[in-house]
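Figure caption, in words: inputs first, then the predicted bound structure.
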Amino acid sequence: MAEVIKPSKEPVKIYWMSRHAPLQSQVTELKRLFGDDVVIMQDPQPFSYADDIISRFRLSGADELVIVAPLSVIAQIVQRGIKPLWAEMEQVTNPEEAETEAAGRLYRFVRFRRIVGIQLQFEEVEPVRKLDMAKVVRSSKEIAGIEMKVGDEWDAGYIPAGAAHRRCRVTVRKDAPYRWSVYAISFLGNKKLASWDILTFQCETCAKAFASCVVSKDKNAECPIHKQDGFSDSDTYTARVAVLCCLFGLSQADFVSLPPDAIWMLLSAAHRISDSRLTWQHVMKAIKVAEQLRSKYSLSWEVTMIKFYYKVEQVLLQSQINRRLPVT
Ligand SMILES: [Zn+2]
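Bound structure (zinc ion present):
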């Protein structure tokens, strides 16, 4: 790191942009680097984009910027000619060595480094044949040597994957010798919220392939006999409407009695999940916000859905902005 030479006797001012105050070891290191009289100005306010950070830093009159931010934001700051300091942390397992904790992991401060650029590395993308992408689903008989009995179930997975508290399971159930139903059932913790029957099939592996596509994405799985002829993209879209309603705790009867605008907002969100513009994680965030407002202000479903849709739009807009950020 280049030595910093201040012409006057003025203390070096550090703009510390993080919700967390500097650790004792970080303060000690800043004193070693910039002098014992170093002034640390903490700004714990959240920031949204690079220009916001830069204007706050410039207004502060500080000499150095320390920041904890996403890489795309740091890249923009560097592009505008500021080289911020970055606190390098090391993950440790021994709690006695740890100085801080984030997301259940323990860390120790190592050193400060100056960020002078962020480089993206690329490799060529090879074309993949569409059929190779589809996972061929196998029957229980083929996998375990046992036929599914009437009443047996097979779980395709949870939506969103990895969500612990509020989630929806998509399951295939054998209802009769040649009848398999795909249904969705949602839970809030251990409490059942709602369930929807989605579609029935005469072929076990068609039902499983369909359920897998609903959980992951269209074209993700296919029946070894009927390929994807047993269902269409509009079926998986309908299934996603069902999952969305289940996550809100709405039954099929609740759904059809919603005001038309509320229905339209749910359908539109499901559509955006189907075309991969929206992820279930994002949807879940929007549901949480809408539900909190609903219980706090006893909102009607119509207003709840407006809040939900507003949040969804916000997320989409944010991801569009992120995509457009030039990163070099
Ligand atoms: Zn089939």
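The chain has two domains: 13-114, 144-318.
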